[in-house]
Fold each of these.
Amino acid sequence: MTIENRDERLHLARALVRHLEAGDDQQAEQVIRKLAGEQAERLYTEVGHLTRELHDTMNSFLEDAQLAEIAHVDIPDASERLRYVITTTEQAAHATLSAVEAGLPLVDDLKEQAVTLLERWRQTPEDGAPLSGRDGELEAFLEQVRTNTTTLHARMSEVLIAQGFQDITGQIIRKVIDLVQNLEVKLVELIRLSGHAPSAGNSRSVEELAGPAVPGVAQGEMITDQDDVDDLLSSLGF
Amino acid sequence: MKILIVDDFSTMRRIIKNLLQDLGFTNTQEADDGNTALPMLKGGNFDFLISDWNMPGMTGIDLLRAVRADSELASLPVLMVTAESKREQIIEAAQAGVNGYVVKPFTAQTLKEKIEKIFERVNAA
């Protein structure tokens, strides 16, 4: 704590004692508010700086050279960008699933035919012998087909299951979108609620808090436009 | 065997549908939320319900409770397939009357085993 601050506090504290001893409750109340105001002041400044940082970080997304074009043309803000991720991963997963759905019946069909031929030929060895080719090449081949199609079916099922990534990542991304939106809205609201700039006009705070019976102050006006946020933060000195 | 698959992610519904097909269950239908699923279940003659937990309208746990509270649907076998893996949630689902619980990500083998287990118990009862 700087010397000026301590001196100020001492001065206020002495004034408080004087008022209390004299029974001046209203004056005492005012001094108490001034003393408490310092703490709130510091907190307010911290929160203001944090909000500015968050806002600038989100805006700096747009300045990234690689993303600038996509961002300025297709995606205006961070939440939109996250939604875009969900959409594109969904499309990619569906495309993969379509390919797998088309491929599996072909694989199963091959396997079925190979098995049918093998069984037929094995049941009639005399007839089958010339057809199985030199050294049973064809029979060996059919065996190979049976084995490989079984493996292929299993591998393709794995590809199918792996597309589940889109569901899990999508759920996480949705939570982040909610978090980012809530955070920014709440911080801006908090600053509006506290109602005054750090180098304080008490006059400004009186205006903001005018009319104690107004429940609508807490709800206020939702700021959702990036430019509005920028303007508001600047006007409050951040 | 008529099965209803409920999940708000279309990719997951498609995966489960394919896995069921692989197991021989070809009569499947889909819903994207508890709210759309419940009317489908009522009078839909479904034999099995597979549902996610987190859905924006009516969650899976609320769908489960609605099913158990409905005189027509009360004994419908329900399998939950969800990313929610907290102990309290699994307990909550069990207390609400779920028949099986699969945590994402899951393997085809796991899904198969859980479904078979549920039908074993249902047939034994």
Note: The interface with chain A takes residues 7, 9-12, 14-15, 18-19, 22, 54, 83, 104-108 of chain B (CB under 8 Å).
Amino acid sequence: MKEACREHFERLSEFIDGEIDQITGDRIRAHLESCPHCRACWATFKKSVEIFQHLGPDPIPSEVLTEIKAFIRSSLA
Amino acid sequence: MGNLCVDRPAGRVEQEPEDQTLLDRFCAGDGEALGDLADRYAARLYSFGLRMCGNSSDAQDMVQDTFLNVIRYLKGFRGETKLKNWLFRLASSACLKKRRGKYDPDRELPLEALYPGHDPDAPPEIPDWSQNPADELINDELRRYLVRAIKKLPPNYRIVFTLRDLEGFSTAEVGEMLNLTAPAVKTRLHRARAYLRRELDGYYRGTSEPEDGRS
């Protein structure tokens, strides 16, 4: 295991989110081009984040919403 | 100290038009404005509560506690943050209070345990699932699997992950809501994602059920 692989793994979320400075970003991009193991890790990590961000909210049962609104009305009274 | 209904304090942020209308109605004494606020946000807050608390009853309690605080504090809301962010800040506080003594304690997820590592003798493999569009990958089974996996995250990681990736708030917004620095938000988010990425990988390989995040 190369130390560089571990270091880049630590910054992978920031890299995927575009929240990293350009120099570090360029360094990670260069590493991904030269390291197929890290490239595979990056691909699954990036796809995982996409899946999380597409999950969407759980629906609220209509009776729960009705109860919450009744609670608000009674709290205002 | 000013308030939204009396003053126009400096530092106010622009609200979404629907929220501004609700705030204006509230300031004008319209008693229905809070009910309409519930219509607009209760579902999202409930979903957030469900992911944080893990059951419907506690999620409903959390939403109601949040709206109690809205009733208490909305007059003092100065508009220095978006209304939606303020609501989620109240909801996060309600979650943290509710789980105190009831749910898992906060604990660390060491990055070492989440690092996938490389086997230098094995050829690198980019799994098929990482090549497909997310929309095509998400089905009821995967959703249930991920909900279980998310529930296994330690709460201090779960709340950051939920606000950031599931609710779509930015790093700065989550930091503001939870009183965390941006680096702390990023660290927790990355470890939560690394844990869940490992679970997803296990799901697609057919080798794992969501494990407790203690590894």
Note: The longest helix of chain B spans residues 182-205.
